[in-house]
Amino acid sequence: QVQLVESGGGLVQAGGSLRLSCAASGRTFSSYTMGWFRQAPGKEREFVTAIGWSGGSTDYADSVKGRFTISRDNAKNTVYLQMNSLKPEDTAVYYCAAGPRYSGAYYRAVREYGYWGQGTQVTVSS
Predict the structure, then answer these.
(1) pLDDT of 20-48, one tens digit each?
(2) What digits encode the pLDDT tens for the residues 77-121?
(3) Selection from 63, 83, 61 nearest residue 71 by Cα
(4) 56 secondary structure, DSSP code
């Protein structure tokens, strides 16, 4: 079992940057594919990015490619999301999630992730 806690959200102007963190409990964190999703008001939760269990593979939604970077530190049981060049359309609640074990990054469906954090709000003003 994995418990996830996100932090680092906030209010930022367009063009600015934020770094989200997701701290995990449990000794098996390093075995999970980790993903970030987001949900804007009135919209479905959508895939943002994921990283494989070893950190050797990553996957990004087209809307964030080149602006966001996912990374993980298995020694600290933490996954990060560096968000640069933020746009108002990036405004959402951001969730981290733990997915399949001992797998790569190519899992984009919400149903493929079994553990979720409570979310952190990111608001980008224009």
Answers:
(1) 999 999 879 999 999 999 999 999 999 99
(2) 999 999 999 999 999 999 999 999 999 999 999 999 999 999 999
(3) 83
(4) S
Pairwise CA distance, residues 32 & 70, whole Å? 14
Tokens (6 digits) for 120: 């952190």
Cβ 20 vs Cβ 120: under 8 Å: yes
Determine contact, residues 89/64, Cβ cutoff 8 Å: no
Residue ranges of E strands in the chain: 3-7, 10-13, 18-25, 32-39, 46-51, 58-60, 68-73, 78-83, 92-101, 115-116, 120-125
**Residue 123 to residues 17, 31, 74, Cα–Cα distance (Å):** 11, 31, 28
pLDDT of residue 48: 98
The answer to whether 4 and 115 are in contact (CB under 8 A) is yes
Q: Residues 45-60: what's their mean pLDDT? A: 96
Continuous segment of H or E residues that includes residue 126: none
